[in-house]
Amino acid sequence: MAYTPRLKELMKKVEESRASRVGINYPRMSPDERRAVLQKFHPDFIEDGFRKIKVGVNKGARLPYEMADVFEAWSRLRDVKLDLQAKPAYDVDILIIGGGGAGASAALEATAAGANVMIATKLRFGDANTMMAQGGIQAADKENDTPAIHYLDVVGGGRFENVPELARALVMDAPLVIKWLEAMGTMFDKKEDGTMITIHGGGTSRKRMHAARDYTGAEIMRTLRDEVLNKGITVVEFSPAVEVILDDQGCAAGAVLYNLETEQYLIARAKTVILATGGSGRLHYRGFPTSNHYGATADGLVIGYRAGAKTIYADSIQYHPTGGAYPPQLLGLLVTEKTRALGATPLNINGEQFVYHLETRDVESSAIICECAERKLGVPLPTGITAVWLDSPLIELTHGEGTIERQLPAMLRQFHRFDVDIRKEPMLIYPTLHYQNGGLLIDENGLSNVENLYVAGETAGGIHGTNRLMGNSLLDIIVFGRRAGRDAAAKSKEMPVPEGLNLGHVDSYHRELEETGAADGRVSPILLPHYTHR
Amino acid sequence: MSDTIAMVDIFIMGKRYTVPETLTIMNAMEYAGYQLKRGCGCRAGFCGACATVYRIAGDYELKVGLACQTKVEDGMYLAQIPFFPGRKAYYDLEEIKPSVAHFAQLYPEVYRCLGCSSCTKVCPQDIDVMQYIAYIQRGDFAKAADISFDCLMCGLCVSRCPVNIVHYNAALTARRLYSRYIARPDAFLAERTRAIEEGKFDAEIGVLVSANQEKLQKLYDNREIEK
Questions:
Q1: What is the tally of structural domains in chain B?
Q2: Whether residues B56 and B28 fall in one domain
Q3: Does any domain span residue B14?
């Protein structure tokens, strides 16, 4: 699926202007320009994509339609008879739901603190957005940088809406997380003397992006997973949670798991529960394609919300500026921000740059949408959509031949599979649905407002305000995974085994759905997206 | 701007389906009506969940690919490998060293490699798998770590190995050994973590945490940006 003759013709404009663009920095937007482009073009500000939710603890809150649909839905257990007082199939101190980076980090710290831990996960252990994070992980561990400078980048990028204590935890723990991963044998990009190689990301004021080539998340995930297995921690795969179970005090006390293959429901009892189920890109807000993992269907948000956990900024969604647009097999897939960090720039159909290449993600995406939708200077594709160029060959011109092969092997391989050589040909990109900025509100230890119910990773909200910077998600899953794991372990030690396990909260939620008529036949969590065409 | 997309016939586990030729194997299975549980993960070539073996009608050669990264072809007979029972050695990274002696205890089968190159031929990431096994045998963990780095742990190598080596697990252990013991630790990182633990940044960050938005906005807009 190489570029068509028509696209190759259009590409000449990019080639013609390339030499004149080497080493030239397009001006950054002023704060006023940033605000203006966001309000006009960012999907978060387009009101007809949202509605007010009619049920639950945040009744009246504004949510994207597709998220409201899974919130206003019946439990999968509506017509299922379960004996919650029978001997549970699993009985542990800490039940971790989700086997990505946050779940694995929580499991390691909780186990180190002496707790009996189990991970239940929907697909395979490690099947998560963590695995797909390419570009890097931030930490202020250079002499010209401090946690305070990192903090300012985090809250500025987050439109000053971050929960300050959570942002503080994020940046203060960051170097500790890098050290923890380094000691665990994670293969970061380093110089001979051991110094971590770090670069800029969108919205960073210091070069603090650590990477492992462009497989940073995969490298972190496989290391964490290996360590979890080495520690003998129980992992139950293909068993998503479909409801949180509460005890007679209203505290979290386990979950109902669903064996995807045998279709049985199984009870897991636990003194504390950590929701680490990831994001919701597979809900395809506003019809956007997504860079997310197959399992990103908002499961933790849904069951946490039914159990009474409050949301924060659940209406704030991140569209990554550079999703693949062509060849069609790559639609929506992530083109790592590291591509821009290395100097690739977005260009319109005339081969002209129209936005600084490292604005924050929300601004960069809005500028690309504007270039296509309003200025009509996008590149029309045979698939019927428009896109803009991302001039990857500029990287080789700027940093020397071989840079792409060394620094972006995954990108090179991915496009090569469909006959595009990104060393010589620019990429075609358009914003893709990438990340859930908000989620369930937590405190500094990852605890939600429901007693004994922790949340970590993309399911949690408040850390990033309403826009997350590159490299702060790999960081946040580990920071808050570890914090939740440690706190849950400490708490579990002082607690008796919970009693009076019940799903009364699901019954009350159902009553609200009946009164409002909001559910309209829908059932959630959906667990798997529906892509079958027949 | 062609309006019609050519269709091809593929055979999923022996059963024929007609699908658009532009689809990946994964999308084609969904187009055919499968809702995937196993054999589907990141859908972007990073997780190794969707290892697929296939053959084209009339051709004897068995081919492999990741279902999410391989386009369908006419006459493709395919099946996914939902799970492969490969062995993993359990170890404490602090108790082992990057030495042949330690490695041989964890993965003795690595030293039985016949040099048949089946693993290299089958790798959907084009990694020279046999070569990194050779580096491991020699105790050259730095080279093994380097060339095995792009491994997705899809397990196709293991499925073809006549002496039952679990290449991807051996490589992961080699990379962890390299990163823990051969690559040098970042000296300033250690200094920085100590400073944080000693509370040296608490006051500075405390000022920002309690600052109002106006003040933060001003600091943010005027912050110095490293070139």
A1: 3
A2: yes
A3: yes
- The answer to whether residue B1 sits within a structural domain is no
Same domain, B106 and B147: yes
Q: What chain B residue is nearest to A222 in terms of C-alpha separation?
A: B172
Which residues of A carry out catalysis? 320, 340
Residue B104 resides in a domain: yes
**Three-class SS of residue A524?**
strand
Residue type, A309: A
Q: Which of A151, A212, A532 minimises the CB distance to B33? A: A532
Q: What residues in B contact A141, CB-CB < 8 Å?
A: 186, 188-189, 192-193
Model-level pTM greater than 0.90? yes
Question: A88-112: per-residue pLDDT in tens?
Answer: 999 999 999 999 999 999 999 999 9
* Listed residues B30, B51, B80: the one ending a domain: B80
- Per residue in A322-342, pLDDT (tens digit) is 999 999 889 999 999 999 999
Task: Inform me whether the C-beta atom of residue A88 falls under 8 Å from chain B C-beta atoms.
Answer: no
pLDDT digits (tens, 9 = 90+) for B59-69: 999 999 999 99
In chain B, residues with a C-beta closer than 8 Å to the C-beta of A1 are 22, 71
Domain co-membership, B160 together with B138 = yes
Residue A451 per-residue DSSP state: T
- The boundaries of the domain holding residue B20 are 7-80
Q: Do B47 and A418 touch (CB under 8 A)?
A: no
* Helices A504-516, A299-306: crossing angle, 10 deg rounding: 90
SS (H, E, C) A292-359: CCCCCCCHHHHHHHHCCCCEECCCCEEEEEEEEEECHHHCCCECCCHHHHCCCCEECCCCCECCCCCC
Chain A residue closest in CA terms to B207: A148
Residue B202 lies in a domain: yes
Both B199 and B151 in a single domain?
no
Q: How far apart are CA B221 and CA A504, in angstroms?
A: 50
CATH, residue B63: 3.10.20.740
Number of Cβ within 10 Å of residue B193's Cβ equals 21
Do residue A190 and residue B183 have CB atoms under 8 angstroms apart? yes
Nearest by CB to B189, from A196, A207, A219: name it. A196
Cα angle for residues A284, A411, A136 (degrees, 5° grid) = 80
Provide the ipTM: 0.97
Interface of A with B in 242-271 (CB under 8 A): 260-261
